[in-house]
Design brief:
binds magnesium ion; eight-stranded mixed β-sheet; 2 domains; GMP Synthetase, Chain A, domain 3; 20% strand; Rossmann fold; 39% helix; binds adenosine-5'-triphosphate; alpha/beta; single chain
């Protein structure tokens, strides 16, 4: 967004008094997201945990203030409630135990409407092919006749738009964000909501808000035609960002992607531990880039050690990289190839887990 518009909108928002204290909405840090795309404004307002009602009443005024700014065609205001920062006092718990309780029992994640199951694809290590697996699994579910969606939660490097060949910004309708469609899969990505140069400011709390918005306000399905499975491409790593994301997302099951090398396997173990800590079922491990260079079979052995299912292996194969770069996932574009067959087998095994 250009600076003049940002200033204009900032002033308008700050002229609205914070219902929960002295000062304007901007000064009090209530605006946690503000983006513009072709005259459409997305504004995320965070209300304190107590007092959301007063903020709710304010939404039309915020929308009107934004829409009155020159050059603005439409504004959408999303209200989110801040998590309570402190857990209820428990006198007998030590500080460390209290912290652990807080982490283990987060604010319940809001379930997306009309979505039967959320399947997260994760990896401890970056670059192991997590997005490739997420995209092809989603396409494989679609080929099995399931209603499949794909949410790109990788705020560090959203790659789903490129891999599915999507460039358009999603439309808003009736307060919902309409997912784009490619290869029979409904998709939303942080990469579609922001310009590349704006992506930076979305990392951190705003990124997490954007995700919640795409998850809970995406028009993924309807009462008559609910989505059977929403595949979520998580960012790589097992740090605090990932932990928060996992806790804030209502994940029914996780798939961990690894390459056969020991370094990647060690990170896969960490990802497995993260899911155990948050009580998320791990539905299985996938070995990607199996073959001569990296070896083969390490992930299957690791799955056995962890007591997790092994879902299959995908060989190192140039068609996968070409498919990803050109927005033509191999499962949809080269369905008779070895890689497509491997993904179809994984999807069949996972379909049994979906509710
Ligand atoms: N089996 C494979 N054979 C050949 N190339 C592959 C294979 N799997 C993935 N790739 C390529 O490797 C690169 C990294 O894959 P991808 O983006 O899916 O990994 P990622 O784990 O999502 O990475 P990041 O951590 O950056 O999100 C991409 O260029 C992709 O096309
Ligand atoms: Mg990725």
């Amino acid at each position: 967004m250009d600076e003049a518009l940002l200033n204009e909108l900032g002033q308008r928002l700050d002229a609205i008094p914070d219902p929960a204290g002295a000062g304007g909405l901007v000064a009090n840090g209530r605006i946690v997201g503000l983006t513009e795309k072709r005259g459409r404004i997305d504004c995320v307002v965070e209300a304190p945990a107590e007092g959301a009602a007063a903020f709710s009443a304010l939404v039309p005024a915020i929308k009107a203030a934004l829409e009155a700014a020159p050059g603005v065609k439409e504004a959408r205001v999303v209200l989110t409630a801040a998590a309570r920062t402190r857990p209820p006092k428990r006198a007998r718990l030590s500080e460390a135990a209290t912290e652990q309780t807080r982490r283990a029992a987060p604010v319940p994640a809001a379930r997306p409407e009309h979505v039967r199951a959320v399947l997260a694809v994760a990896s401890g290590k970056g670059g192991v092919g997590k997005s490739t697996v997420a995209v092809n699994l989603a396409c494989a579910f679609a080929r099995l006749g399931l209603r499949a969606g794909l949410l790109d939660a990788d705020v560090y490097g959203p790659s789903i738009p490129l891999m599915l060949g999507l460039t358009e910004a999603p439309e808003h309708r009736d307060g919902k964000l309409i997912p784009l469609e490619a290869w029979g899969v409904k998709a939303l990505s942080v990469g579609l909501l922001v310009d590349a140069d704006q992506a930076l400011i979305w990392r951190g709390p705003m990124a997490s808000q954007a995700l919640t918005q795409m998850l809970t306000q995406g028009a993924w399905g309807t009462a008559d035609e609910p989505l059977d499975v929403l595949v979520v491409d998580l960012p790589p790593g097992t740090g605090d960002v990932q932990l928060t994301l996992v806790q804030k997302t209502p994940i029914d099951g996780a798939v961990i992607v690894s390459t056969p090398q020991e370094a990647a396997l060690a990170d896969a173990r960490r990802a497995h531990a993260l899911f155990q800590k948050t009580g998320t079922p791990v539905w299985g491990l996938v070995e990607n880039m199996s073959g001569e260079i990296f070896g083969r079979g390490g992930t299957r052995a690791e799955a056995e050690r962890l007591g997790a299912a092994f879902l299959g292996e995908v060989s190192l194969d140039a068609s996968l990289r070409q498919g990803g770069d050109s927005g033509r996932p191999v499962v949809a574009d080269q369905p008779d190839g070895e890689a497509a067959k491997a993904f179809m087998e994984m999807a069949k095994a996972l379909a049994g887990k979906l509710r």
